[in-house]
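Discussion board: Methods & Data

I've been asked by a reviewer to show the raw model output for two of the constructs in my manuscript, not just the figures. I'm not sure how much to include, so I'm pasting the format here to get opinions. Each protein appears as its amino acid sequence followed by a line of discrete structure tokens. Is this the kind of thing reviewers expect to see in a supplement, or should I convert it first? Here is construct A:
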Amino acid sequence: MLNENPLFDYHGTNYQKGRIAHWNLVAQKRDAWRGLGRWYHRRLIEIYQFLVSPHQRVLEIGCGMGSLIAQVQPSRGVGVDFSPEMIARAKQRHPGIEYHQIDAHDLSEIEGPFDVIILSDTVNDLWDVQRALEQIHRLCTPATRLILNFYSHLWQLPLALAQGLNLAAPLLDQNWLTPEDIDNMLRLAGFESIRSFTEILWPLPLGGLANRYLVKLWPFRDLALSNFVVARPAPRPRQQASVSVVVAARNEAGNIRSIFERVPKMGSLTEIILVEGHSRDDTYETIVREIALHRETPGHLFRQNGVGKADAIRLGFDQASGDILMILDADLTVPPEDLPRFYEAIVTGKGEFINGVRLVYPMEKQAMRTLNFIGNKLFSMAFSWLLGQPIKDTLCGTKVLWREDYRRIAANRSYFGDFDPFGDFDLIFGAAKLNRKIVDLPIRYRERTYGTTNISRWKHGWLLLRMVLFAARRIKFV
């Protein structure tokens, strides 16, 4: 359907008519012709299968013959394209997807919402990109992710040569937008970029090494064919939410009273979930006593059957009732008085996963040993590069996220496996895999006043190095 809105001017209408005629011819040509583009499209499908978890509500704008949206296994898949020839073939090839012949500049006939909205090689062909992006807002929830990919200007000549040799589908004049152009248009249309990256260095046979590894490294990444941008609707403050503060307590009897006395009231309700794990002191009995003494603060105690902090935190999260889940280390090296800052950051939408950072402000003299400090700095740089978002401190215990996002992380845990005894990386990797906005929040790190650390410098340092390699394989080089 051609856009008939009076605001869509004469030139825009003629532009779209020319595009429709062109893509109708391309669809007909593909009935009997196969160029070299199939390797490019196979790699695109692999990338989107990583970016889009199965069984979500997915809309693709500019879906062509529908192969991409069908391959991401949506629970509800909707593809739109303005070419009737493309849509006819999409319906025939992928009957499980709902297809509509609609112009991207007017999506009023589409009913949402959607979890993921895809514009794959679409924006460079649009008359008014900002307007098309504005049409999407009605179809979003606060958690919707918008994923765009588009050709790099560097490939204009190679693509023209391939088209001239009849090796690639012909293109009309393109917008040739840069990632900076897209970032600006997203802001104007009410969206916020989360991260951008490049993909596909060799869109031909035998491109595995180049497309999986080299394209992620300098200087090859600047030569890539496709720019990708992941965005979300611009954040809006949510109504007051309830909070669950989860504390893994092992040999921490001397800190339990302070936890109850110092955790502030936040949101509509603040509960404290304590998980005691195989303590050699009287931590369990102390928690029982303090819960009885602080009835004004809802407190819940669970005894851990498994081992390790990760296991304890998962038990606490599973038992929590709050809209927001917070981790507080029982050693109180991160002051409980800082938790309202985490609450404010997440309810105002500044981030969807708030990560505490100990490495910005000067810390108390004995709070962290020098080698640990250097190691944390090095690992933070490695993980920032791997995840495509700044992560300045990977092992600060204080992390805050929405319970609904934790459920998605837990449901998708099989992608990474049960590899993390701390629990920090399970959450960070899971949030990154869901394309959540990760925000670092600096805190002042304090010296432990009771007990001793459970961290082994060399043993856990080696484990961190293994996690870097693991993350590279499962997140970066996919």
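Construct B, same format:
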Amino acid sequence: MPIKIPDKLPAAKTLKDERIFVMTEKRAASQDIRPLKIAILNIMPTKITTETQLLRLLGNSPIQVDVDLLKTQTYEPKNTSNEHLSAFYKVFDDIKDKKYDGLIITGAPVEIMNFEDVEYWDELCEIMEWSKTHVTSTLHICWGAQAGLYYHFGIDKELLPKKISGVYNHKIKKRNVKLLRGFDDEFYAPHSRYTKSVSEQIKANEKLDVLAESKEAGELLISSKDRKMLFITGHMEYDAETLASEYFRDVNKGINPDVPENYFPGNDPKKAPIVKWRSAATLLFSNWINYYLYQETPYDISKVGDKLKK
């Protein structure tokens, strides 16, 4: 089944060109099924790129997905046009009385700052608190994962000696988890960050499970015991060229970054990178949609969160 998005969203043409099944709003309205409702809080500066990356993965599910794009209202994005934001984005006040099957909170380039110093931190905390009772399962990505671990479980973050940038091999730590059904024992995933959540605190927390980790990059997949909160410390949604774009951007700024590890063939930035993580990323999102949303969420979406009241 397809993903339903506005016809004029820039991602629509890209996804159609890639033969991702995208359904028009008019056609979706004629179908007598309940699509899954997923909200994406997109706090990345490159909003259109991030939209496309996430919608590509959501669109590979056999289940129809209806997406709401959200932006912060306490901080006005500077890298995306007002026309795009006005046409396709909502703010929390627009949706806070609604229920959702899923929520995705993206990363953001604020990881070196203290959480409380981020301009929209209070708003993000309000959304994360709201998600406990209004969302069946929430997926947190990169800085969004660090923020979620800090807010929900008090896990601190720490500055790394140097930026982790590259594609790393990961091993599964818990095999009997639905999120990882069909995964190989080892798989690749990209990372791009200057900080990390404190490993000792994660592993000591009885409410959390580490599902997959890397010797070089640390924990990648972390879950709450009830599987309502999932945390991806890397960027499995990245396109083939995303790490390259970040690398050459920093080169042009004179930052003199390290070449992303295990990314360019022969560690040569002149060569086109090879994607090693696409199948794992697709499977991860498909499993999340199937096992953690479709098979867990009530058919009457207004009843999301009712289990917590009992």
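Answer (T.O., handling editor elsewhere):
This is acceptable in a supplement if you add a one-line summary per construct. For B, something like: The two ends are 34 Å apart (CA to CA).
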